[in-house]
Amino acid sequence: MDLYVFATPYKIAWDYYMRSNENHTFEIKAWEEAAEMEYHCRSVFPSNPNTQCVHQVKQHGIAIFLMPSGMLGTLLSLIDVVPLFSNTGWGQDANLAFLQKHMGTSFQKRSEPWSANIRREDVHSGDFLALSKIRGRWGGFQKLEKWVTGAFAGHTAVLLKDENGTLWVAESGYENKKGDEIISMTPWDEWWGMALKDDSNPQIALLPLHPDVRARFNKSAAWDFARSMYGKPYGYHNMIFSWIDTMSDNYPPPLDANLVMAIMSMWTRLQPHYASNMWNEALNKRLGTEFSSMFCFSSPSWGLS
């Protein structure tokens, strides 16, 4: 049984076919709107203010993908991935099983108490925090991130002490009161309190610097850098390319670059703010453009130009 996916920048649909010796028809009964058939967007290149980019189903057709694992294999793959995002014990078990199956690693269950009592006097500037969430939306997201990049931590932070002995956590991705994700400096007690209340069950490892490295750690330079970065936006313009650094080798089957492009195009329309964070900034940075829409990055073959 062959499974096919049909995609435009506005929708993704699928169908399956049992026999190869027959003619098969897939009918699109209605377009989302007129723009799906003839979609135009005009954006500005710094070097050419008159550049126009065009996506037209009439002109470029519909992207068609054959899922190599067939109907059963694709369903099994979905069963493997979908539970990762469940913020339940079932989701946690799925995350741990995913790590074991796909990365050959496992989490050793600790005896209680599960949270350690970390004393400030035992922590020094430059010590490192490695975090791994194992359920919920961010738990699932981090598992896929680990799988693609080969990392074993989904988030990291650095500890710094000021001249008064106050311990701070320097990290990127902190959500402020406006809902923006920024580079932040958070007092240890506040940060640790939030970590204990986090229902995604984060696993947090404190990794102290080796004494020889600590002796060379430039605390004043670290503070100068942290203060200069405080409040700046989270580095979405780099994040997506920590995943994708080759033409075709970063996509676990059955994904490939063309299918990812189709999904990104549709996602851009459904959640434009999220899409702007996740890939528009990254593409603008690397292409030297100022586009606000994912559609304008795509070539007629749905690849990046």
From TrEMBL:
It comes from Miscanthus lutarioriparius. This is Uncharacterized protein. It comes from the Eukaryota.
